[in-house]
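Assess the record.
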Amino acid sequence: MDAVFDPWSPEFLADPYPAYAELRSRGRVHWFEPTGQWLVPHHADVSALLRDRRLGRSYQHRFRHEEFGRTAPPPEHEPFHTLNDHGMLDLEPPDHTRIRRLVSKAFTPRTVAQLEPYVTRLASELVAELVAAGGGDLLGAVAEPLPVAVIAEMLGIPEADRAPLRPWSADICGMYELNPSPETAERAVRASLEFSSYLRELIAHRRGAPGGDLISGLIAAHEDGERLTEQEMISTCVLLLNAGHEATVNATTNGWYALFRDPEQLAALRADPDGLLPTAVEELMRYDTPLQLFERWVLDDIEIDGTKIERGAEVALLFGSANHDPAVFAHPERLDLSRRDNPHISFSAGIHYCIGAPLARLELTASLRALLAQAPRLSLAAEPERRPNFVMRGLRSLPVTT
């Protein structure tokens, strides 16, 4: 299995989709010794397991580490785990339900719709600067600053304080890769401490001078008896920032790189942006999935195709593979911007479905529309370098000319 699924090899990282096809052909579940996980590559299984309450993002709401047959993280990693373990992504009910209910008030369809003029204007301004310069790095000029600014605006982080947000996020997210190195862990711990310290000060300031931002809203909910601890507030803000832009940045650059390699589809999109944009956004999310893998702990024994997976095991749900499953998607290897039957799972499913999915769609649509309108001859200036990450799939940069 190692020869087929090799998430650390440059060849695999360049294009994992043929390996996924081989995995699917070999069965529904595979043991992967290097990470001690069960790989699940089929769409039907991934979709079902995301909704299966016998699995969880955490086990600590039911078991101690020893009871679950696991070893506690090293003490020096504690700042990262304190930050990570109190956010709703890694919590299970009832804590997950309580926090998600509070945060979801900031992501109602009405709230997202109210953000549309701001997102559209910012996307247009960023693209105008790129065009005025005759090109540059699409990632650094448009893909990254747009979602970072939007989520920072929602949280109420002052513009002067935003420079460290993306580096902090990148360092923390390094821990979500498979078997992160000691150096990766060290950077994640340092970023966790710095980001937490910054937010603790900002929360203290907002207690005395509340505004219309999300942090003020979380404080108000806390004071109204909703039992949101300060650590939960900090962890929620970090999660919203990280999840609120990492996937959007990667979806934007992965998507444009795919378009540049398929001139026919790019020409069709340029010819009919209004007609194709809604389906194009979904197809670009599916075609080169920004989050390739999502992990779940097995809390109660399950069985997949005759293979018993016992409590204490970990399953790796392969989103990238599920999004290319021919049992669900006709010609999955083909970029089809007009694809209408597109039940991709790039935003996950079940209780951990991405709360910011409507905002991500708005941001992707706005940046695509602005680039199509203002840079009709946008083209690749040089072959981009891919980030050496598997789980969060993206590019280091995307050089373009306008």
Remarks:
- The chain has one domain: 10-401.
- The longest strand covers residues 293-298.
- The mean pLDDT is 93.
